[in-house]
Amino acid sequence: MLGKLVALFLLVSAILAAGALYYLQVYWFYAEVTPAPGQDVLLMPLNGEMPEPVSYADFTAIDADSSPIRYRACFTTTESLDRLRATFVEVESVTPRNAPGWFDCFDAESLGRELEAGTATAFLSIKNVHYGVDRITAISRGGNGYVWHELNDCGSKAYDGTVVGEECPPRPAPES
Asked: What InterPro entries does the record tag this protein with (predicted)?
């Protein structure tokens, strides 16, 4: 009888731990981003050093302090995709990162297909928004926009343990 109680206790503990781990990863760490009108959607101009704002509406975003690549945002814009392509820096070979299922405006799989088909274009928004992480903004022909964070070359090297090299800026000191 005692063995059955111990087994039941272990099973219940494992189920509770798995549920808590799932909840923490999918819901707990994320927070809604408070919109900052005129500052939420920025794109890097072709011949510029500083990102410039783009007109947008219906902005919603989530972020988490636990990782620099958890940022996701959605918005709409009336800007012409052709004008944006002629004015701002495009990025190639990016793959949108999945968002939590409850953040339903951001569908990484569908956006990835649009980028491959050329019905959406990805732009550099902010270089090194965090060390080794760039903010990417993709805009579709229909005016839907999506934002996520992507590791750049320095970030990929830094986070996989490869020697970073001289072409990358020094890593910032850890915050105390």
From this structure: DUF6446
Query: What number of helices (H) and strands (E) belong to the chain?
Result: 4, 8
1 and 49 part of one domain: no
When mean pLDDT is compared over 16-20, 106-110, 149-153, the highest value belongs to 106-110
Banded model confidence at residue 64, pLDDT cuts 50, 70, 90? confident
Q: Which amino acid is at 163?
A: V
Strand partners, 135: 126, 149
Strand partners, 171: none
Residues 21 and 55 both lie in one domain: no
Q: Exposure pattern of 107-116 as b/e (b: 16+ CB <10 Å)?
A: beeebbebbe
CA pair distance 106, 114, nearest whole angstrom: 13
- pLDDT at res. 161: 67
Which is higher by pLDDT, 149 or 101?
A: 149
- Is-contact 64 25, C-beta < 8 A? no
